[in-house]
Amino acid sequence: MLDVAKSLPEDPDELRQFTALLLAEVKSQAMLIEKLRHQLAGQRNHRFGTSSENIEQLQLALENSEIAVAKMTAKLRLPDEEPKDKPKRRPIPDHIPRMEVELTTGDDDCTQCGGGLRRLGEDVTEELEYVPGRFIVNRIVRPRFACSACEAFTQAALPSRPIERGRPGPGLLAHVLVNKYADHLPLYRQSGIFERDGIDIDRSTLADWVGKSTALLEPLADAIGRHVLAGHAIFADDTPVKMLAPGTGKTATARLWAYGRDERPWGSDVPPASWYQFSPDRKGQHPKDHLTRYQGWMHADGYPGFEDLYHSGDIREVACMAHVRRKFVDIHRAQGSAIADEAIGRIAQLYAVEKEARGSPPDKRVELRQAKAKLIYDDLEAWLHTQLPSISGKSPLAGAIRYALTRMARLRHYLDHGILELDNNTAERAMRSIAIGRKNYLFVGSQTGGKAAAIAYTLIETAKLNGIDPQAWLTDTLARIPDYKINRVDDLLPWKTTP
Fold this sequence. Notes:
Layout: H1 12-48, H2 52-76, E1 144-146, E2 153-155, H3 170-181, H4 187-196, H5 203-229, E3 233-244, E4 251-261, E5 273-279, H6 285-290, E6 296-299, H7 307-311, E7 315-318, H8 321-335, H9 338-357, H10 362-387, H11 396-409, H12 425-430, H13 432-441, E8 443-444, H14 447-465, H15 470-480
């Protein structure tokens, strides 16, 4: 730091040196303030920003406010006022079973004159009711027979069950899996819910069911993995999950990897799918093992562990514009930077072209991108190069620009290939369920538990991508798979099931 007590020098050369020193100090302090301001904005956005978790908290607050208004309206007997933005009431779907109750006055004759009553019509009012899910017991009775002549004994064989010598049926197992991995309901909470119905199922028993069910379903998850890796372009991402470290009572940071295939944006009718894999750490060897058989394009972020994959030549990288945009958005929120705002606007023009191209075949997408997006892309790249010398090289904005230029060089392929996308959002969407789920179950108990989670996420998220009810599909699959031939397991994939 400068000595504030130091008197100003009288010699002109010394004064110039002192001024230069002062300017350097001011610049250093300004840089520090800018970095701290950026970090503070990031922390505020993390705590209070529009993340999915915070949006859910906001929705919860709105729900509480709406409940309070409804309660006060009922208490004061005020007339209901329909807000202009309130969703319009839709008719109850026809597939919902109807339980009809007919209300009559009980009179056969007119109360005014005693004459006979004839039916003119009826008024029907429908109300939507909910009957809580209930347990049933399937009693499988197998009579034993003995021949009266030779005393030979005969009895029907017990059909195969998902868990041999276990009590749960396929519907209950599917219910537990979907509750945990789709609805983010930890097993101890499920155990409490079952207890309210008078069924005592300990959390450890549910955990045993999950482990054995996912082991049974693993060949099906492997089939989904083969389907994903058969694509010409895939999407890859990973996210941290806590794993209990054996013997320490502490947790270590493990990873769940997602590999997605979704060709719907370019008009393909190939079913979309998400394949998840678990690893105890984030070493680059894990994606190399996962993608040993894959050749083609891979959308991904700038994770250094993927570099060895690209060096082999079998996998070609496609960078992600969403990651580039996100850095400029963070800076604009923190500092109100005009340069960051301009970058965001130019990137928005690229996404406008993608919106127009969505659903078109690959050749049409290339034609549209070459006609409209290429010039925008080239101009953005050139503009970023001209901005870099005008700002401090140590500022967050300069870091964002350097990151953008590096990633854009690896994204340019999308302009010439219609099967590629502008971003990696397909993989990031595949991570949403995990991000929400880990807030509830906190950690996986072991590597085996992590692998079970990867299998369950693979099955459930792929079913959801194809518009299939995961619980109905898993119920049917768990009933059929014990006796299914391993070489025909592809027949059980969610998009091959009959609704």
